[in-house]
Amino acid sequence: MKVGILGGGQLGRMLLQAAADYTVETHVLENDPNCPAAHLCHHFHLGNIQDYDAVLAFGQGLDAITIEIESVNIDALETLEQQGVKVFPSPAAIRIIKNKITQKAFYAEHQIPSPEYLITNSLEELKSKEAFLPAVHKIGEGGYDGKGVQVIKRKEDLDKGFDAPSVLEKMVPIQKELALIIAVNTKGETAVYPPAEMVFDPILNLLDYQVSPARIPEKVLWKAEAIALKVAKSLKSAGLFAVELFVDHDQNVWVNETAPRVHNSGHHSIEGNYCSQYHQLWRIILEYPLGNTDPIMPAAIVNLLGAPEHVGPAVYEGLHETLQIDNAFVHLYGKAETKPGRKMGHVTLLSTEYQDLVYKSNKIKHLLKIVSKK
Ligand code: ADP
Question: Domains in the chain and their CATH numbers?
Answer without folding.
Answer: 2-88 (3.40.50.20), 116-170 (3.30.1490.20), 174-372 (3.30.470.20)
